[in-house]
Amino acid sequence: MSVPKPNTLFIVIDQLRADCVFGALESHLDLPNIRAFAADAVTFRNHYSVTSPCGPSRVSLLTAQYTSNHGAKRNGTPLKRDTPNLATVAREHGFDPLLFGYTDTSHDPRFLSPDDPRLFSYEELAPGFDEVVRMRLEGDSSAWENHLREHGYEVPPYPEMYRPVGDTPDSPALYAAKHSDTAYLTDRVIEDLGKRPQGWFGLVTYIRPHPPFVAPAPYNEMYDAADMPSAAKLNDPDWHPYLATARRKSNVASTVVGFPELENSDETTRIIRKLYFGLATEVDHHVGRLIDWLKETGQYDNTLIVLTADHGEMLGDYGLWGKMTFHDAAFHVPLIIREPHAAHRGITVNAPTESIDVTPSLLDCLGLDVPHSMDGRSLKPFLDGVTPSHWREFSVSELDFGDPITPTLWQTDHGLSVDTANLAVLRRGSMRFVQFAGGLPPILMDVSDGIEGRNLAKNSAHMQTMLDLMQDMLCHRMVNTDGTFSRTLVTDDGVKVAS
């Protein structure tokens, strides 16, 4: 008798930083369902997205490639049409990958008519998925917006629909909690998957707690601003030339709609943080609904469940907002995996892992081969308490901060071309090495005290450490080239492919 396919539930939470689940912020917000799930799964505490922002991070997550290989390094940069991803590989092996939400994938214009509607938004669908629920943040074609109209709401265009109804940023959203984007998506997931036979495969992508930060009641007042932890600060916030530009690019006023004069103060930071925490708790509530539904329907123990985030959020640390920086909080994200037949539950893995490892892990758990084009490695051995041989000793992330059409502030402030407006950060233990492509000085930091704000790159006592990390980065780039045909040879006997 053949073994039935497991269900697959892949949950991606937008902009949830890891220390909300475990770490510095853990004690300040309630995430009971995600933490209960972690207690029955395997948690990877040293897990980082290999890139940012939303579009590139999701491309890397699904293709298991570094941005230097897939090339879709900005929101709106097309992904090459023939790049394998989680959905295309799974579909080739009889699965029907369903999308509840969005993937922010820009399509390859070489194979589409110039007037194809898919070429007018970066928020398009990754190949291989069957889009069940269409959710968009900036567009007006979201199923959720239509849902709001059906319930009598007047829905203004983006971004006004996210303007709080009141005189303060923490005033409630125009919609009730039962009609929020998070609630609506969860309702649709349960409704749809409840009609499908065993073996379904669902990617569920929650927009929250991504900005604009606006929360429906009671989540907008769930936390007291006075109780919020203070943001990390430095005596010299401009210790590197990248940072003053970063604060101009994404200041606190950019995180909410309708308050352009919002001052960058400790009081304001606490208000925005409580909104972020409220939104995260709302997502946690609905993740709990999904888990409870699986248990109530007898599917929990036959469902492969992965929960992660696409990238992090600075939340005012060092005066920065969003994720366009080299700091840990912009890339450090939670990863929790529950494989139905894994030998261990409730364990924590501290080895360095990366977002490109998630798709190979899913494929491996489903018994599928991982294409050679994928840079990541399967985490399945960790689920059984085994550390794979020759596991990586550091993690690497890349960030492009240029724009080929309209130069960014970094380009204009620092005289950078679009090709030199990028950086890579390597993390080994407590050390962080940041290399800029051009025009900006490198950074070496020791973050063992939890502070990311002192550049040791010019300190002769740390020169050897910097050279070692620099060599690590160079070797990493040399090893992780495009692997599409890296194990393929055309020979006298035809095409040969290594196993």
CATH homologous superfamily caption: Alkaline Phosphatase, subunit A
* Quantity of strands, as a count: 17
State the distance separating the first and last CA atoms: 28 Å
Q: State Rg.
A: 22 Å
Keywords for this structure?
499 residues; alpha/beta; Alkaline Phosphatase, subunit A; 8-stranded mixed β-sheet; 12 helices; 17 strands; 25% helix; globular
Describe what this molecule looks like in 3D.
There is one protein chain. This protein has 499 residues and is an alpha/beta fold. It has one domain: Alkaline Phosphatase, subunit A (3-Layer(aba) Sandwich). It is built from 12 helices and 17 strands. The chain has an 8-stranded mixed sheet with strand order 6-5-7-1-8-9-2-10, with helices on both faces. It has a 5-stranded mixed sheet with strand order 4-12-13-14-15. A hairpin with a 6-residue loop joins strand 14 and strand 15. Helix 1 crosses helix 8 and helix 6 packs parallel to helix 8. The chain is globular, with a radius of gyration of 22 Å. It starts with 6 loop residues before the first strand and ends with a strand. The model has no long low-confidence stretch (mean pLDDT 96).
Topology:
Blueprint: E1 7-13, H1 32-39, E2 42-44, E3 47-48, E4 51-52, H2 54-63, H3 67-70, H4 86-92, E5 97-101, E6 130-134, H5 143-150, H6 181-193, E7 201-206, H7 241-249, H8 266-296, E8 303-309, E9 335-338, E10 347-349, E11 353-354, H9 358-365, H10 380-383, E12 395-400, H11 409-414, E13 422-428, E14 431-436, E15 443-446, H12 463-479, E16 488-491, E17 494-497
Parallel strand pairs: 1-7, 1-8, 2-10, 3-11, 4-12, 5-6, 5-7
Antiparallel strand pairs: 2-9, 8-9, 12-13, 13-14, 14-15, 16-17
